[in-house]
Every structure is written in C-alpha cells, then in structure tokens.
Amino acid sequence: MATPAEYRTPKQLDALEQSLRAEMGTLADDRAAEEFRIKYLGKKGLLRSLLKGLAGMPENERKAFGARANRLRADIEQEFKQAPWRSGGATAEHSSFDPTLPAAPLPIGSIHPSVQTCDEICDIFVRMGFDIAYGPDVETDYYNFEALNFPRHHPARDMQDTFFVSDSMLLRTHTSPVQIRVMEKQKPPIRCIMPGTVYRHEEISARSYCQFAQVEGLYIDRDVSMADLKGTLLAFSKQFFGENTKIKIRSSFFPFTEPSIEVDVWCFVCNGSGCSVCKQSGWLEILGAGMVHPNVLKAGGIDSEEYTGFAFGMGVERIALMRYGIDDIRLFFENDVRFLKQF
Ligand code: DAH
C-alpha cells in the first residue's frame, strides 16, 4: 500500500484521486467496499494520513497541499457514500452513523374504540357508586341460563344462539351470568357493573357479529324500585349522550327480570327528526333492563322477600356505532389500522 510520505505535491494527489475513483468503480460487493473504506477512508486510512507528509514541506507548498488533501478526502468520502453498490448494510453506514441522534419514533397504538366506549360507560357508573366485577367468558349452562330463570327447554333460550363447548359448558351469550356470581359472593346492598365479551352464533353482517362487548348492571337493596332504575338510566344517558337527552321506556320480556323493559334514547344524530342511524324513528335502542326476577335472587342466595333489585345490560359496540356514526359493526373486529387510528 502507498504510504503517506509518497504524496508530496497536489499533482500526485490528482493522480491518487483518479486511481481511487477507478478502484471505487470496481467494488463489486459490500465486502470489497468495506476493505476500500478501511484502506482509504478509515481512521488509519491513507486519506486521513496524507497530512503527515507535510512535515518539512515549505510553507506555501504545505498550504496548497493541505487544502488539496482535505478536498480529496471529502470528495472521495462523499462519492463512496453515494455509490450505487452501497446496499445500506453495515459497511458505509458506519462511517456516517451518528449515535447521538435521537431514535426514529416508534408508532404508538391507540385504545380500541369499543374499549374506549366501555371504559367511559364504566366510569360513569363508578362515579355513581357502582363497583366493577368480572366473570369468565367460558360459562356453565347453569350460570348463563338456568340460574337466570331460563329452564332447560324454555323457548327463550332460542333468543340467544349459543356456542357450546360441551353439554354443560358454553361461551357466555350475555354478561348477565356475572349477576349470579356477584350475588353468590356479596350481601346486599349490591351496586355493581360487569363489563365483558359475549358470543353469539349469529350470521355476521353490518349489524351483528359473533362476538361483542356488554356492560351489565345490578343494584340490589331494600325497596329498590322501577323509579330507581329509571333515574339511574336517565342520569347515565345524560352524562353519556348529553344533558338534553331524553329516554323512552318500552315494555319487553327477559326471563330474568319482571317487569322487563327496553330503553331508547333520543336520537342525538338527528335530534329526533329521523335519520338513517335511528331508521327514521327518532329513537335509538340502547339497552334491556328490568326488576330482578325473584327466582334469580333466590339462585343468587338473596331473600326476595327482603330485597328487590334492578338490572340492565347494554351492547357496547351498538352504542359506539351510534356515537361515532359508524355503519358497520364488523369494522370493530377487523383490526384495520386505518380505522383504529381514527380514535
Ligand atoms: N342479557 C340481555 C341480553 O343480552 C340484556 C339484558 C336485559 C340484561 C335485561 C339485563 C336485563 O340485566 O335486566 O340480551
């Protein structure tokens, strides 16, 4: 290898530049490039040591030679970095790697819109004094049906298309079984909400999916009445949907409540004048509710002579759909980042 001392004039440096260019043109792969880099551009490489040859040179020559040597090094470095064979691998990268630069930011995810909605619902009830409880997704037939006053061959079981795991085990079709689990563990007064995922063997469409989230509510104490239920749900609706919200109560049927009701809220999208979200009715159905059936209290070990209670259950995605004006429930489960990023 040429030694720095061989180069003493700018002319010699011109010749060196030419030969380096030619050599760069022959570099076939990263390994050859790395060898070139070490030989000429590295800390102990030729181009960095050229100035050592300056000793003993007359002042004016030294100046011209120094300037030329510096330019040569800068030019070759630049060209080496931009050369087409550079694969971005370990080789040339190192020469320009700056460990003090801040790292490239990692993309951060966001909370899923159905989880956000569920959290908001729960927060409102927690502020009203409700506790939170959870139950298992894989349930027994007893908790999902029997204890909730669905006898074995009761036709109401057909309302809930069930995924069975075995004869007696299933994926819960609603969060109501958690009511029984809470009653078994706690004595009244009970004020509890129970969020969770539920599963239905349903045909998948824009309106229904085989899995979704519910928030169940339960309040048991002495003298709990329908008026308490109505007041609680109205207070919730005002906080969630806005102060001017109105609710409408319709009678309904569930085996585990008597009487049973369904609750609609004033369509906040069109202010009740009729739109596609409320199907021109001005109202949106948000939940089922009712006074806990005495048989259900009994199954939970609570004396139905002494205590009464109300319960309710709402579908989280349904509420999120209305709230965000989304027209297809499947979007919640497809994990398309373009959709999820918007929340
Ligand atoms: N479990 C019912 C369902 O999934 C919803 C429901 C209705 C829950 C009435 C309740 C209730 O607690 O009282 O369709």
Describe the secondary-structure layout.
Blueprint: H1 10-26, H2 30-41, H3 46-49, H4 59-82, H5 90-96, H6 113-127, E1 131-132, E2 138-140, H7 141-144, E3 169-171, H8 177-185, E4 190-199, E5 211-221, H9 226-241, E6 247-254, E7 257-266, E8 283-292, H10 294-299, E9 308-315, H11 316-324, H12 337-340
Parallel strand pairs: 1-4
Antiparallel strand pairs: 2-3, 4-5, 5-9, 6-7, 7-8, 8-9
Bound molecules: 3,4-dihydroxyphenylalanine (DAH).
3,4-dihydroxyphenylalanine (DAH) binds at residues 174, 176, 216, 254, 257, 288-290, 311-313.
Count of the separate structural domains: 2
Give the neighbour order of strands across the main sheet. Answer: 1-4-5-9-8-7-6
CATH second-level architecture of the largest domain: 2-Layer Sandwich
Q: Report how far apart the termini are.
A: 63 Å
Series of H and E elements: HHHHHHEEHEHEEHEEEHEHH
Rg over CA atoms: 37 Å
Largest sheet: 7 strands, mixed
Stretches where pLDDT is under 50 for at least 5 consecutive residues are none
- What general outline do the C-alpha atoms trace? rod-shaped
| Cofactors, ions and other ligands in the entry | 3,4-dihydroxyphenylalanine
Helix content: 25-40%
Strand content: 15-25%
By DSSP (H or I, 4+ residues per run), the number of helices equals 12
